[in-house]
Specification:
heterodimer; A: about 400 residues; alpha+beta; 2 domains; 11-stranded mixed sheet; two-stranded antiparallel ribbon; 12 helices; about 50% helix; B: about 270 residues; alpha/beta; Rossmann fold; 6-stranded mixed sheet; 10 strands; about 35% helix; globular; binds adenosine-5'-triphosphate; binds magnesium ion
């Protein structure tokens, strides 16, 4: 027999109370685990969405002129032909300390041109980086190769009758990048050539409908467009993708600003940003709710232990009288609480994980997962244990301070 | 030098409401020799239990000191005093105070829980004391499955499991009938015969007559020992004790022959 033996015997004797405490701590830990893993997996999902989204930093020239919008990005100076970005600036971006975090740098020159009688936005791009950035594009046809090859946005292609619906069998667009639930394109290229800005071009491919700005744009190689618009070496925008979940985007932006003082660098505002904020709020809410629930659990442990100590006054007095030290009394009570807390922690962790798995579909589309991580289990048990122990310190000390002769007389 | 020295002990319980506390003990001085069996008698409320808990190193006296085996008990720190209780004392409470959720052997083992001994050794010692008090066959019974006398014997087993040199007992026979009380008394005599010093509170003059000496307390003060009739305060040899003892007690032990005194129950 050791002090632990007595602690276990006491637990067994007061099963109801012990289970009540296990449930209390379990609910607290379960709530915390559920909320934390839920917001954690949402955060992760948003991270991978961000990665898929393409650019998260845009560099444009400083300009006071009216701006033209491109995909929610305001592109300064299109109307007033104020191009002050050049290839030098791309080199500048590559000089920032965080350059290793940048995965794609896509410079482009934009200009309004005439396409079969319509004003259309023409973008000169470096196709290899552009296609890496726009992973959701689905091309019908091929990648532009020659200088006068162009890619047409879906709306442009329709307007100039460059495509026609596929009869019968579905001709699939070439998937560019990983899985993307875009609508299936059912068309084929119906013409070869197109006059853009007064010059004949070959239609190399058509971008399947994206619902974005590119639907109404024409893409050609950067050098060619610079020639076409008479702006050699000039750029109107540099799109940059920093492909990482927890990128220090703001820091990268600050570094670019420092390197390119004449340009304007900004973190892109996307719908993802709004979701990120929502998840941030959920995370904060989770933290607050978890703290409150845990505090309630702690209070429960505290009051239960206090009443348990009062209830056991005489017993504690007897133990003291037969030679138990104060520390032995504290140890016994702490063993009891530790057993209860660990049980509550493990149970809460399991319940919280289950709850978050059940709740996840209501918060996100398919794809997001709740992983079973040992670190979270350890964390749950550690929090349970420390909550239980901390709330029992005072009751245990009270118990140990009981005067043995008085306590023995307690009725 | 005496084994136990009580020097001018006074005790005033501070009354929580009023300023004036109740003075329960006044200037109590007494000595117990090693191996002595001393009884304490006195009317209800005279301070017997208080004196016993003070001797038991668990109730700080308001005045005076208690020295046991040369150790000034109340000069020790609280934790050291707990160790002292564990090492030196066996305490038998009037109401036994057994742990209702532990079985007999576990109750007997309780004082060993804080000691660094192997589980097997603790068990062995607990079984040995259960044997001694005649409860070896009921080791796995819970206290409420034992009779009053058996509970008393279990309380004694717990008090002696750590083999303490001093055993303090507060009316261990108080609630028992004469026969069962006699069994308990015999146990104490047996322990005493093996060298343990015993200080026992009792209301029963027959028990007191079996002790070496009896102290009388009234209103918190000890009566001078000379006031007590000699035949009541000391045992004299060859008094035909055996013939008057309950048969059961004699059957249990041969030790009893070596003890002598007045017969039970006048
Ligand atoms: N903890 C305490 N606080 C206040 N008063 C106490 C306390 N313990 C004992 N007393 C008082 O001290 C007096 C002596 O009590 P004690 O228990 O020592 O008497 P006793 O001689 O053992 O009596 P009994 O034979 O009835 O057991 C009583 O009047 C009691 O009310
Ligand atoms: Mg009493």
């Amino acid at each position: 027999m050791r002090i632990g033996t007595i602690a276990f015997a006491n637990l067994k004797r007061r099963k109801g109370k012990a289970l009540f405490l296990v449930a209390g701590i379990g609910i607290g830990i379960g709530t915390a685990v559920a909320l934390l893993s839920l917001s954690g997996s949402l955060r992760e999902e948003i991270g991978s969405q961000l990665d898929r989204f393409g650019a998260n930093i845009v560099v444009t020239p400083h300009s006071d002129s009216l701006s033209l919008e491109y995909g929610g990005i305001s592109v300064a100076g299109v109307a007033f032909d104020e191009h002050r970005l050049t290839g030098e600036d791309v080199a500048g971006v590559l000089r920032i300390p965080y350059r290793k975090r940048l995965s794609v740098i896509a410079p482009k020159l934009l200009g309004a041109v005439e396409v079969e009688g319509r004003k259309t936005l023409l973008a000169g791009v470096d196709f290899s980086s552009e296609l890496r950035l726009k992973r959701w594009w689905r091309l019908t046809g091929g990648k532009p190769e020659a200088a006068d090859d162009v890619l047409l946005g879906y709306d442009v292609a329709r307007a100039v009758s460059a495509i026609e619906p596929l009869p019968g069998a579905a001709g699939r667009g070439r998937p560019n990048g990983e899985h993307h639930p875009a609508s299936e394109e059912r068309f084929r290229i119906a013409r070869e050539r197109l006059i853009v800005a007064g010059r004949e071009h070959r239609i190399a491919g058509v971008i399947g409908q994206t619902g974005g700005a590119e639907d109404r744009m024409v893409f050609a190689s950067l050098g060619h467009v610079q020639d076409l618009l008479g702006k050699p070496g000039q750029l109107s925008v540099i799109e940059i993708s920093a492909l990482c979940k927890d990128c220090p985007i703001e820091d990268i932006v600050a570094q670019i600003r420092k390197e390119l003082p004449h340009a304007r660098a900004s973190a892109i505002q996307q719908s993802v940003r709004a979701r990120t904020e929502a998840v941030d709020r959920l995370t904060r809410f989770s933290a607050v709710v978890s703290a409150v629930v845990l505090a309630i659990g702690a209070l429960m442990v505290f009051t239960t232990m206090m009443s348990s100590v009062v209830e056991r006054t005489r017993e504690i007095g007897v133990l003291r009288a037969i030679g138990f030290r104060r520390t032995h009394i504290i140890k016994g009570l702490m063993i009891e609480v530790a057993v209860i807390s660990v049980a509550g922690g493990v149970l809460g962790w399991a319940a919280g994980l289950l709850a978050s798995r059940l709740a996840l579909p209501y918060f996100t589309e398919a794809g997001a997962q709740i992983e079973v991580r040992a670190s979270l289990a350890l964390f749950a048990v550690a929090v349970a244990l420390s909550t239980g122990m901390v709330s029992s310190v005072y009751p245990a000390i009270r118990a140990s301070r009981l005067d043995p002769s008085e306590a023995v007389r307690h009725v | 030098m005496s084994f136990v020295v009580v020097e001018n002990v006074g005790k005033t319980y501070s009354d929580r409401g009023s300023r004036t506390g109740a003075t329960v003990l006044r200037n109590v001085s007494a000595r117990l020799g090693e191996g002595e069996f001393v009884c304490l008698m006195g009317p209800s409320g005279s301070g017997k239990s208080t004196l016993l808990t003070i001797l038991g190193a668990m109730n700080h006296p308001s005045e005076g000191k208690v020295v046991i085996d040369g150790i000034d008990v109340y000069a020790l720190s609280d934790e050291r005093r707990a160790d002292f209780r564990s090492e030196y004392l066996g305490f038998v409470f009037q109401q036994h105070h057994l742990m209702p959720y532990l079985n007999a052997i576990e109750n007997a083992m309780l004082p060993l829980a804080t000691l660094r001994l192997g589980a097997a050794e603790k068990r062995r010692r607990a079984l040995a004391v259960l044997e001694k008090v005649g409860l070896a066959g009921k080791a796995s019974r819970l206290p409420n499955q034992l009779s009053g006398g058996e509970q008393g014997r279990l309380a004694i087993a717990r008090a002696i499991v750590n083999d303490p040199p001093l055993v303090l007992a507060d009316e261990p026979t108080g609630t028992l009938d004469t026969k069962t009380g006699g069994e308990i008394m015999k146990l104490f005599l047996d322990l005493n015969a093996r060298g343990q010093t015993i200080f026992m509170v009792t209301h029963n003059p027959a028990n007191a007559r079996l002790a070496h000496r009896t102290l009388h307390i009234r209103d918190g003060a000890l009566a001078p020992e000379s006031d007590c009739p000699r035949e009541q305060t000391s045992r004299t040899p060859a008094d035909g004790l055996d013939s008057e003892l309950p048969a059961l007690m004699i059957d249990r032990s041969g030790d009893f022959d070596s003890l002598s005194g007045k017969p039970f129950g006048d």
